[in-house]
Amino acid sequence: MLLTAKPFVEYKIQELKDKVSKLKTKPVLALIRVGNDPASVKYVSNKIKRCNEVGIESQVYELSEDVKQIEIVKLIDELNNDSKITGILLQLPLPEHLDEHYLTNQICPYKDVDGFTIWNTGSLSLGANCNVACTPKGIIDLMKYYNIEMRSKDVVIVNASNIVGKPLVQLFLKEGATPTICNSKTKNLKDKVKSADIVVLGTGNMNFMSADDFSEDTVIIDVSINFDENGKMRGDVVKEDYDKLIEKGCDITPVPGGVGQCTVIALLENTIDIHIKMNND
Question: Which of 114, 236, 241, 251 is catalytic?
Fold first, then answer.
């Protein structure tokens, strides 16, 4: 079946809205956006919209494309020390002259809603309580919503990034699965995919795999966002093959309408949970 995010998102929005309504004060999410990249503008706008839906206050800081790194550091430092700010999000990617890794790690780990700081990624590896990267968290939450069994399942993750593949390995291990992480140097990749119970694809290559590349009853999580010549959003899996995959008993997250929406929900949940910890609500 198609693992569409819509019913999950509607359920979580109501749950989070109820949670916020019981708080003494509203959580406040600070969003820093550098430049006017159309994708970043759209992503930040969507996050603000969702914040409003559940009752989270959002504060947007729009910086020029040529902003100096020290200016961003100063802003992050101010937000770190502002007790009214619950969480801080630095919208990625950044312009080339800025050090993404350095700037991300200027955020106080407790306010790091994206879970990208060294402290949070390290804590995740150790199995300690921490803020978890939103896309991996969203993937696991969506699978749980659809009651997809992960324990003892062989998982192949075709993405070795710090914000998806690596943290996702830790989350699957926590669920009792056996994950294998693959990258562009992996030999016999298609054989590994064919033998997996669960496949997570995040290569960024449109139409990278078709229905023939998967075994029957495989759970396929397509994380990629690509755009075709008509500006239509597509994933790593050939969209026209969805029906064939369903006929084979496979489950797949559609693009659009899948993991992307779950990522934003995870961001909202992280923000609310941080607020509760900070204020003992």
Answer: 114
Distances (CA, A) of 121 to 27, 76, 91, 246, 266: 23, 19, 18, 35, 16
CA-wise closest residue to 95 among 74, 68, 60:
68
Asked if 259 contacts 138 with a C-beta cutoff of 8 angstroms, the reply is: yes
Phi, psi of 65 (to 5 degrees): -55, -35
Residue 47: active-site member: yes
Q: Is 190 a catalytic residue?
A: no
pTM for the whole structure: 0.94
Q: Terminus-to-terminus CA distance in the chain, angstroms?
A: 39
- Cβ-contact 228, 238 below 8 angstroms: no
Kindly name the residue from 91, 106, 170, 261 that is annotated as catalytic: 91
Is 114 part of the annotated catalytic residue set?
A: yes
| Residue of 47, 111, 137, 166 marked active site | 47
Q: Which helix (H) or strand (E) holds 220?
A: strand 219-222
Answer whether 199's CB lies under 8 Å from 218's CB: yes
Average pLDDT of the chain, as a whole number: 95
pLDDT of 281: 65
